[in-house]
Design brief:
299 residues; 12 helices; 80% helix; transport
């Protein structure tokens, strides 16, 4: 298991390191890279994944509900823990605690830990996290802009419309032409490395990560407190067996790179978010190693 986890973590750290190296040596426009991820690659990934997944949402409605409740509890936990921090930093802590990396990190770990059936659970959680990240994320980072202006900003995000289009197409049993589908598949495959490179560039151009109190606070809550919270919420809602295991495992994932992407777009405390992504990615090696052996003991 340790060897399998390292084969997931090390590629992530490798891409981050290469991005940091390139960002430190070359003059790259990180804002352009960030917007390319936000407005093109991530929407394509969401559309491609939703069109091709074999998961049945009706059978997993309780799992999706539990994940939404858990994410909301993470926002509240981050708010309470960071209450004395300045507004931008407090919002960064809230996002870092609630938005987990259920994609490029969570999917392989679930496959290694729970097999194909566990991977299917993780895939549903990932799709739910895409929806939640790009709706609740801007609301968290929006600050004092007000609810309706922030919602209007959310509706301008292409990922929201791509998710809606994919759900309509699945409901009508429609398929894309083969050539278009393959093109979208190529773009979707480029998304995860690109968002990791974007984070690496930010770390490389921003100097050393800030290892201050907000970073350690958000990191500890994300990696070690959220799995316990996931167990409590999942059990209370009624999850058992593989569904409960999938939720608990997903809650042990590090902070998502997309939290950093959103923090850059909405001019939040992106340094705290970037540092937390890095720290939680490292800490999750320990966190996941603790959680995985305990999954078999869950009811």
């Amino acid at each position: 298991m340790l060897s399998a986890l390292l084969t997931v973590v090390l590629p992530v750290l490798l891409i981050l390191g290469l991005g940091a190296l390139v960002g430190n040596r070359l003059s790259l426009d990180s804002t352009t890279i960030n917007r390319l991820n936000l407005y093109l690659l991530t929407p394509t990934l969401a559309l491609n994944t939703l069109l091709h997944t074999e998961a049945k949402p009706r059978e997993l409605a309780t799992l999706v509900l539990a994940y939404f409740v858990l994410s909301g509890a993470g926002v509240l936990l981050g708010y309470l823990a960071g209450y004395r921090q300045p507004g931008p930093t407090r919002r960064a802590v809230m996002a870092c605690v609630s938005i987990g990396n259920n994609g490029n990190f969570g999917l392989p770990v679930a496959l290694f830990a729970l097999g194909q059936a566990g991977f299917d659970q993780a895939l549903v959680i990932f799709l739910s996290s895409v929806v939640l990240t790009f709706t609740a994320g801007p609301l968290i980072f929006g600050g004092g802009g007000g609810l309706w202006p922030t919602l209007r900003g959310v509706l301008k995000l292409p990922v929201v419309w791509c998710i809606a289009a994919a759900l309509i197409m699945r409901g009508l049993h429609l398929a894309l032409p083969l050539g278009l589908d393959r093109g979208l598949g190529l773009l979707a495959g480029a998304t995860l490395p690109m968002v990791l490179l974007s984070l690496g560039v930010q770390l490389g151009t921003g100097g050393r990560p800030r290892l201050n109190f907000p970073v350690w606070l958000a990191s500890g809550l994300r990696v070690f407190a959220m799995p316990l919270l996931g167990l409590i919420i999942g059990y209370a809602i009624g999850l058992r067996g593989l569904h409960l295991q999938g939720l608990v495992l997903s809650s042990a994932m590090p902070t998502a790179v997309n939290a950093f992407v959103l923090s850059k777009e909405y001019r939040a405390d992106s340094d705290t978010v970037a540092s937390t992504v890095l720290v939680t990615t490292l800490l999750s090696v320990v966190g996941v190693a603790i959680v995985v052996p305990l999954l078999g003991r869950l009811p």
